[in-house]
Amino acid sequence: MDLIVEFLRHNTMMNRRLLEACRSLSTEELGTSLPGTYGSIAATLVHVADAQVGYAARLLDTPRPEGLAEQPFPGLDAVSELFERGNRELELAAQRDHGDREVVVTGDDPPGRWRMPVALFLLQAVNHATEHRSQIATTLTHLGVQPPEMDGWTYFFDAGLMIPV
């Protein structure tokens, strides 16, 4: 079992679950944000979907497509399409043999440029999405909406990876 690929499959499943949970929200609810989160539910969904496609483009050596605007919110269908592209392409990138390839990243906090192995870059993609899904789940709870289960155990069972003994 390739753990990196499995992490990306978990990421895909949980992105889908969260998007599905958000489909019942009103426009006003999608605009809800809480202190300590990235922003509104809508803006955070766009941010994560755009980031995933960007991470994948870098690893697949394809041009990064124009991202969706956070304002005005493009709608859940458009965000869902972008998520599906990012999900699919990140899983594809994880399945490739990158050998000793490294990725150069530029940051602003702290400022600078660094090299990192592809596996760690994929870890960042998963961690980034997980952190923001958690922020959205907190906002959903604040709205009185039960967020979906998005932990590893849920993935293991739903993916058929837990085998009774």
Offer a few descriptive terms.
Four Helix Bundle (Hemerythrin (Met), subunit A); mainly alpha; 6 helices; single chain
Structure description:
The chain is mainly alpha-helical and 165 residues long. The protein has a single domain (3-158), classed as Four Helix Bundle (Hemerythrin (Met), subunit A) (Up-down Bundle). It has six helices and two strands; from the N terminus they run ααααββαα. A hairpin with a 2-residue loop joins β1 (102-108) and β2. α1 (3-22) runs parallel beside α5, α3 (41-60) packs parallel to α4 (76-95) and α3 (41-60) packs antiparallel against α5 (118-142). The longest helix has 25 residues, at 118-142. It is globular. The protein starts with a helix and ends in a 7-residue tail after the last helix.
Return Rg in Å: 16 Å
CATH class assignment:
Mainly Alpha
**Residue share in helix:** 55-70%
Q: Going across the major beta sheet, what is the strand order? A: 1-2
Biggest pleated-sheet summary? 2 strands, antiparallel
Topology-level CATH name: Four Helix Bundle (Hemerythrin (Met), subunit A)
- Terminal Cα span: 19 Å
Number of strands: 2
**What is the string of SSEs from the N terminus onward?**
HHHHEEHH
User: Which strand-content bin applies to the residues?
Assistant: 5-15%
Helical run tally:
6
**Unreliable stretches covering 5 or more consecutive residues:** none
